[in-house]
Amino acid sequence: MGGRSDIVSGIMRVAGVEKFEDKGAVASGDMVGAVVGTITAAIVSILTILLLGFLVKFLWNNSMPYMFATARPVSSLWTIYAFMLMVYFVL
Residue-wise pLDDT tens for the chain (91 aa)? Predict the structure, then answer.
């Protein structure tokens, strides 16, 4: 009489649910898969940051100087990245 755990294991046995254990790529010996996954994640992250920077620069240059007299167009992506970082830390 184990209580709730016996009930849950009984229901899972009747439903035919088996335990799933994800050991990951490294534990299963697939180092190539782990490395490829890491490199892919790094490339996707870098491309996302680049595209986001270009999008913010485009939106800034095409809207902010026309709405606010004190805002000037930016010429460098580094300025946009610094602005995005500042907004990230403030929020």
Answer: 556 667 777 766 666 655 656 555 555 566 777 788 889 999 999 999 999 999 999 999 999 889 988 889 999 999 999 988 998 899 8
Label residue 62 exposed, middle or buried (CB < 10 Å: 0-12, 13-18, 19+): exposed
pTM: 0.59
Using a 10 angstrom Cβ sphere, with 0-12 exposed, 13-18 middle and 19 or more buried, the burial of residue 75 is exposed
Backbone angles phi, psi at 72, to 5 degrees: -115, 155
Nearest-5° angle of CA 22, CA 24, CA 30? Answer: 135
Total Cβ atoms within 10 A of residue 60? 17
Number of other CB atoms surrounding residue 83 within 10 Å:
15
SS3 73: coil
Residues 6 or more apart in contact with residue 26 via CB below 8 angstroms: 34
